[in-house]
Amino acid sequence: MTKPKVFITRRLPDEIVDPYKEHLDIHMWQSEEEPVGRQMLMEKARSSHGLLTMLTEKIDEGILRQANDLSIVANMAVGYDNVDVKTAENLGIAITHTPDVLTETTADLTFGLLMATARRMIEASQYIKDNKWEHWSPLMLAGTDIHGKTIGIVGMGRIGEAVAKRAKGFGMNILYYNRSRKPEAEESIGASYADFEVLLEQADYVVCLTPLTDQTKHMFNKDAFQKMKKEAFFINASRGATVDEEALYEAIVNKNIAGAGLDVFEQEPISSQHPLLACPEVVCLPHIGSATKETRYKMMQLSLENLVNHFQGKPLLTPVP
Ligand code: DGY
User: Fold this and answer.
1) Who contacts 315 (Cβ-Cβ below 8 Å, separation ≥6)?
2) For the chain, which terminus, N or C, has the lower number of CB atoms within 10 Å?
């Protein structure tokens, strides 16, 4: 029997991919770093039965409609805003993603980003490297406390809950806003539900972990930043487009908020000339929320397992909801 042809849009380690060659005829884009170009992606989608994609690939109607033999897209991310799920559903193309395996890793990074932002860690490291540390002084690089403060988590999914657990360990008061209430999280972590506006007004750290949808696009806009406290920080580890970056920049330079920790940007990679990056109050990371070797390997394996299950007619492990 011929094996189903699968195209992986980035070079993944042989040690991960090789075991799956028994079941799949695997072809890979040969760069680890650079995403596959649009034209090549179109061609590969047309000549493959399955795709294993990264969040950098826009799997839109244009790609899906011309891919006559394609029956599954395994997206190697928990977020799947890069995939036109509706069109895929209409065409009978299955979509999977990689929840759970990255929850704790992403929560670690999110909380670390909050800490780095509040305690000015990146700035402090640069201070020494730039040979500026000549004296110790009482308020040198003084930041803001984390313990005893209020964290406001917007998007209380798996990662939101994992961040809330870390916040509890740090003695924070926990507010959350979500489409639906989470009674178990309220009971086990002691998180309290708040309306979006109330959360913005009360939180010292507003942490965005909501998926990007038509409803959440630019939900952090001028209005939202104006409601936040002047001493509060904004942290984003979900998707850049949940934020109106111009409004965020204005909020920071006008001192409406104290600063921001950003792992994601509307345009990725963000230009190094972007005005936000010139603000000392902004800590920025290149979308590394789930980037540990252990977790990235698990995400790769889960995507491959989904492909194998699909072609063997078994239930998908993690279809998109
Ligand atoms: C995801 O899985 O959606 C993350 O953003 C990738 O790090």
Assistant:
1) 309
2) N
Taking the complete model, does pTM exceed 0.95, yes or no? yes
Q: Is the CB of 154 under 6 A from ligand 1?
A: no
Question: CA 231 to CA 257: how far, in whole Å?
Answer: 6
Q: Where are the beta strands (DSSP E) in 187-314?
A: 192-193, 205-208, 233-236, 259-262, 282-284
Same domain, 134 and 214: yes
Q: How many domains is the chain built from?
A: 2
- Report yes or no on 316 lying in a domain: no
Atom of ligand 1 nearest to the CA of 97: 2
**Complex-level ipTM:** 0.93
In this structure, are residues 98 and 300 in contact, taking their beta carbons and an 8 Å threshold? no
Residues 210 and 84 both lie in one domain: no
Q: Are 71 and 49 in contact (CB under 8 A)?
A: yes
For the CA of 287, the nearest atom of ligand 1: 7
Q: What is the mean pLDDT of residues 270-296?
A: 98
Instruction: Domain of residue 14: give its range.
Output: 5-101+293-311
